[in-house]
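in:
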């Protein structure tokens, strides 16, 4: 089962996908190959079912997550190499981290900071969609993915602090 994840779910190889179609196709495939259907089958058929089911689950989890999906698309088109984020973004990371430390006691400031960081996430998300689906600019997309990954972790820290 080395089939491309997009082909597996009958989807176009794009960053922007139809999530409902992904889920429908996932359920349809799992109905056919799920190990429970092979409970009375031979040992080999059970193992094959488990292998296929695991592959389909991995593919589904990858395509369901925007960052994992973007990384997967890049892996199809570009050799994976270490990305160096631009110095200005590295400075921005440090400033955001310091800002979070300084406002941890204020729920209002945290909520405002979360909103500002969410907007940054949305902008990077739209940029990534353009870089992958329109420009096919794999190098810039790799940088944007790393930025999104950091921003996503920062948003999770903010959410934890808010709770």
């Amino acid at each position: 089962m080395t089939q491309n994840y997009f082909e597996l779910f009958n989807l176009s190889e794009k960053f922007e996908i139809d999530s409902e179609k992904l889920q429908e196709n996932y359920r349809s495939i799992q109905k056919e190959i799920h190990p429970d259907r092979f409970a009375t089958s031979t040992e080999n058929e059970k193992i094959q079912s488990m292998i296929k089911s695991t592959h389909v689950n991995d593919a589904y989890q990858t395509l369901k997550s925007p960052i994992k999906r973007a990384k997967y698309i890049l892996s199809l088109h570009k050799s994976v190499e270490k990305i160096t984020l631009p110095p200005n973004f590295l400075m921005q990371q440090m400033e955001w981290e310091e800002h979070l430390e300084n406002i941890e006691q204020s729920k209002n400031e945290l909520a405002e900071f979360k909103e500002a960081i969410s907007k940054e996430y949305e902008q990077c998300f739209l940029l990534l969609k353009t870089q992958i689906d329109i420009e096919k600019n794999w190098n810039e997309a790799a940088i944007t993915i790393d930025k999104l990954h950091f921003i996503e972790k920062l948003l999770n820290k903010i959410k934890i602090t808010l709770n």
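note: DSSP finds seven helices and no strands in the chain.
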